[in-house]
Amino acid sequence: METQNNEKTVLITGASSGIGRELTRLFAKDGYNLVLVGRDEESLQQLASNFYNQYGTQTTIINKDLADPKAPEEIYGETSGKGQQIDILVNDAGFGEYGMFATETDLQKELSVVQVNAVALMHLTKLYLKDMVARNNGKILMLGSEVSVVPNPMMAVYGATKAFIKSFSEAIRNELIGTNVTVTVLMPGATNTNFFKVAGAENIKGADPQKTANPADVAKEGYEALMSGKDHVVAGWMNKARVALGHILPDPLLAAQTRKDMTPKEEAEQQQKQTTAIAVAVGIAVLGGIWLFSRNRHSYVPSAYDKMKYRYKANKAGRTAKNALDNVADSIKGSYKRAKDTVEDTIA
User: Fold this and answer.
1) What domains are defined for the chain?
2) Of 115, 145, 160, 334, whose Cβ has the fewest other Cβ atoms within 10 Å?
């Protein structure tokens, strides 16, 4: 048994699986006492037993459903009643609902998404942050997402809650300047957890296990950022690039790209096949045209009218392409200027 208790306590929501489970393992290894909150009491008890046997970890299990508006106060009351000082709060719990918002998703489930992902997170932060500020010491880790800064079609409500988490966290972090309390947002992309299954989206392109991140790797990046007091961390270099583009490219373009990842695998594969077939057909047609032209170039002499007509069509196509490129360029330049102005205003 590896025992190295550091006498500090961390409260973690969403600890029974995925990124939350991996974060719990890191805290246990570093000698923290654990307060684990969740609905799956059996899984949490198994975790507690494993960590006690391996690290001598002391664990408190609080069996609560954060979809219940009363849960945050009850959790705070239980830890306060036991005299437990929460040195670190990890708001990891969250889930999504897949489908078209207007016609396919369930309203009650989406209201629960908002309650768990945003309202309970805010409520728990309010309760425990007061104590941290009074002690002038503490850390909070929020589970944001790549979609905190990118529109998320087909999971619109989930994406909106993640945007709230990023904005809320950055705001209170600013309010905490001058204290020894930090707030860090972990922003992963698609991760190989049961998230997509719970959301009813296990068959979409973006949920491909071969393309999703390892939750242990994501947790490690979040843990290190939390301990160093960073404001946020984007897990994975590809996700870092996508988040960077999220601050530059126009939202409609970002939404369209995200929508592709939210397409069912079979539909995405069919679209790819159609695109490939069209490309092959166009290629054959072009090659055929070149071959016919090469055979008949000596026998066919275009008239002055034909030359003028072809020249007109070529110029028109060129102008259309130029206008399209100019529109995209203007949109990108406008987004860049807005981002630049925002940064300059912040620094000023």
Assistant:
1) 9-261 (3.40.50.720), 265-347 (no CATH)
2) 334
